[in-house]
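[Q] Does anyone have a clean structure-token version of this?
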Amino acid sequence: MNFTKSMNFIRIRLTLSAILGFCLLVTAGRNAYAAPSAAEDYLALAEERKSLPIQSNQIENWPAGPAIGAESAILLEANTGVILYAKNIDEKLYPASTTKLMTCLVAAENSRLDDTVTFSHNAVFSIDKGSSNIGIDEGQSMPMEECLYGILTASANEVANGVAEHIAGSTDAFTELMNQKAEELGCTNTHFVNAHGLYDQNHYTTAYDLALIAKAFFQNELLSKIGNTASHHFEATATQPDDFIVRNKHQLITGEIPYEGIKGGKTGYTDEARQTLVTCAEQDGMKLICVIMKEESPEQFYDTVKLFDYGFTNFSVVNVSENETKYAIQNSNFFHTSSDVFGDSSPILSINKNSYLIMPGTTSFKELDSEISYDTDDAHEVANICYYYHGAYLGTATIDLVQKAPVSYEFSTESEAAGDKRIVVINVKLILLIILAIAIFLITVFVIFSFVNSYNIIDHKATGKKRSITGRRRKRNRKDGPHFPSSRFNGFDL
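[A] Here you go.
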């Protein structure tokens, strides 16, 4: 009886195992079929996105930009803020781990490299299982500099949490600093709720705002250096016992996809965000930032290469002071600085020689529109000149006060002994010209006066001579006239 029960039990187990195996096989088959189907769907969506309008292509006579599979993309010149390529640049999307550019920017501005960051339970265990990390345990600690490598090179989420708590006391307080910084940089469609970039419906930005964040990020030399690191070796310490190497997933940084002039960048991925990528490259005086949002792997890298090629090929740097004639500063009267005693001088106002534009190769400087503004907070700037081509911004030049100029003469006064130096600048050439003009005027007046006076003397002599001749004639007439005998008067009683 026991044997029979045992056999029945075995049969039941085998039957259940067979059923379970069949179910697993069916499920596996479905999953095997579903995975490529989902991938195909994403690729199909990326192909459809290539037909989305490109905003920059709508500018008259602007170089045509490439069609790419990203939902949103921008190519920005970092030094001038000029937008070379724009596709849905104001659409709110999820940034994923490109968020960490802002995390590190805020961290660099609010901490020291030798600060010690200790990782709390919340920092280590609040992140999603399987998300990017470097295996830091609760209670371990690292210097801030090592944390920055962990965040940018390995995209470690628990490290981002630990840095946030170290600086602001909590991740929520740190995100307030992130949002304040975003507003300061001019971001108008950005809101952060965490320091690592894992999906949250209220955690979003745009390609344009992310480019502004990257622009500030790459102005920091240390962050640029760390953000361009292909791999980093974490050595064991007393507070972090593991020795390991992490490698960057950014293929333009590692050289898997070679490109000249790469300055760094950051990758990002979540199911909702898809692939996101920020990259900076510099060639021929142009420093370009490319932002790719919502693309499929590995096309985010190739889209970036296409946009870099487009930018470096179709645009160039043009110096304003070497081409501008409309706003030329003339060297006139006293509005200049004297460089020698003869007034051979330079203007006290000049177009900044370091001001330049990013111009498309399809146009010339004469075709540009410009606007001058005197609204400037810089004490050394008098005005700004903004340049446009069919409404597209190309850059700004400043009209500056000349900072240093040789002094012609220095006159010491009693106040100089007290440290008050009074400098008098004299334009000798102009003064000499004024003196010469006055002298010529006086000489002319003197000559005219002398001429008039001489004329009067000559006329007076001529009149006197005439009177003398007339008198002689009258005397002669009295001599030669009829004579009356004196006897004729004898009879008169006089």
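[Q] Thanks! Anything notable?
[A] The first strand starts at residue 72 and ends at 77.
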